[in-house]
Amino acid sequence: MLLLSPESAFRALVPYLILLAAALLALQSPLKRWLERRHATRTRPLLFATLPIAAASFYGGYFGAGMSVIVLAVLAIVIDENLTKLNALKQLIGLCGNTAAAVYFVFSERVLWSVAGVMAIAALLGGVLGGRLAAWIAPQTLRSVIVGLAILLGIFYLFE
Question: Cα angle at 60 between 92 and 45, to 5 degrees?
């Protein structure tokens, strides 16, 4: 989708995609309680988790910068686990999605390799350091920081 749609469409969508991700993560607890009331049993079919995660991953293939927050929010809604473990799973999903996207882009012949190299190193360092830092932070504090930064970033891009 990214290579087929005009850059203007991407630029117009960016702030809304980030703000949507922030809203999903901020509303994760009420959404999860609502889903649990709708599904009286604690066991949910695998499809229940697979479809939202696939949709979030598709979103991430189009807009990688917001993928972390969207995938984390979706995981928190559909999987009953603490935020630190969900963050690790989000990292794995991001690695898989970004690897698939990278392979596709490599063969598209539209990659600026000097920029891609810097981004790859920064992403690797950020993933390693962010994962270690997340293990030390209380889950509610981590959620608040992620939502706050996403809102600031969304507002920044909205008025850019």
Answer: 65
Return mean pLDDT, the chain. Answer: 82
Contact indicator for 69, 105 with CB cutoff of 8 Å = no
pTM, rounded to two decimals? 0.66
Residue 142 CA from chain centroid, whole number: 14
- Per-residue pLDDT at 148: 95
Please tell me which residue, 156 or 116, carries the higher pLDDT value. Answer: 156
Give the C-alpha distances (Å, rounded to integers) separating 127 from 62, 108, 124, 155: 20, 26, 5, 24
- Answer yes or no: are the C-beta atoms of 108 and 3 closer than 8 Å: yes
pLDDT at residue 118 in the model: 95
First to last CA, the chain: 23
